[in-house]
Write a structure and sequence with these properties.
Its EC number is 3.1.3.25. The chain has about 290 residues and is an alpha+beta fold. Helix content is about 35%, strand content about 25%.
């Protein structure tokens, strides 16, 4: 059953709550990276040796969930570590990645942060992403624009592939089919003479980079709802485009694939290359 839009007051309150929760989790991330020489991380593997979780993922999640549950007790919560099997409904739903880019975090890199999105009718309507190592806070509310550190941001508007910077990720699934697929895509992008191809470790960071014009396109298969909920609304409010891998007119937060870009002319190329090299099946089915 479709839910009614949230009031302006409810959205304002939700933004304040998400901001406060994200700041607390980001402080923990920053603190850990600064102190980890004296206190080694406890690292576990999830699906593979490239899919990691640390005690700080859990700590950050506890901080965020406690605040969301206290301040918005009627909202559902989906979160990567302990609430990843909660079904998405049409009601207000927080979608949380307490440490997006755990591999970067483990290695003390800049490509990690906190991502908190709010969905209604399975579509993002509010997002907060904090990248503590970059000192950047991104946020957006539906109909109100997108911001970085309080200043309005816009996607680049780039429509020409040869003038674009494109970002892709190597999936956690390191099967031969999966690796070959993304490498073939990157090879063709290079031959198409894109300005550059980048690969970082945080989906939320890369989506925000598209939103503020640092990147012109980013796409990935194997991505989860908590990776992209906040970033999707930030991109949309910055004038960019976000949609599922197999179509350019809809964004399915449960589809495990996503393309975002400064223009549909660019995302069309990603759709075509993904189909050509069987990207979705290679990652999800192999």
């Amino acid at each position: 059953m479709t839910s009614a839009p949230l009031s302006a007051e409810a959205l304002e309150f939700a933004l304040a709550v998400a901001m406060e929760a994200a700041k607390k989790a980001a402080h923990l991330i920053d603190q850990c990276i600064e102190q980890r020489a004296d206190q080694p991380l406890e690292i576990e593997e999830k699906s593979s040796s490239a899919d990691l979780v640390t005690q700080y993922d859990t700590m950050c999640e506890e901080v965020v969930l406690a605040m969301l549950q206290e301040k918005t007790p009627t909202y559902e919560i989906i979160s990567e570590e302990t609430r990843n099997d909660i079904p998405m409904t049409d009601g207000p739903t927080w979608v949380v990645d307490p440490v997006d880019g755990t591999t970067g975090f483990v290695h003390g890199s800049f490509d990690c942060g906190v991502s908190i999105g709010l969905c209604l009718n399975k579509q993002p309507i509010l997002g907060v992403v904090i990248l503590p190592r970059l000192g950047e806070t991104f946020h957006a509310v539906v109909g109100q624009g997108a911001f970085r550190n309080g200043k309005r941001i816009h996607a680049s508007g780039c429509t020409e592939l040869t003038k674009s910077i494109v970002c892709t990720h190597t999936a956690y699934n390191r099967s031969e089919a999966s690796v070959n697929s993304i490498m073939d895509i990157n090879r063709e992008l290079a031959l198409m003479r894109v300005h550059a191809i980048r690969s970082y470790g945080s989906a939320a960071m890369d989506m925000c980079s598209v939103a503020c014009g640092r990147l012109d396109m980013y796409f990935e298969v194997g991505i989860q709802a908590w990776d992209m909920a906040a970033g999707a609304i930030i991109i949309r409010e910055a004038g960019g485009f976000v949609h599922s891998l197999d179509r350019n007119d809809a964004f399915d937060i449960e589809a495990k694939s996503m393309i975002c870009g400064s223009s549909l002319a660019l995302t069309k190329v990603a759709i075509e290359l993904s189909a050509k090299y069987n990207y979705r099946a290679a990652v999800l089915e192999s």
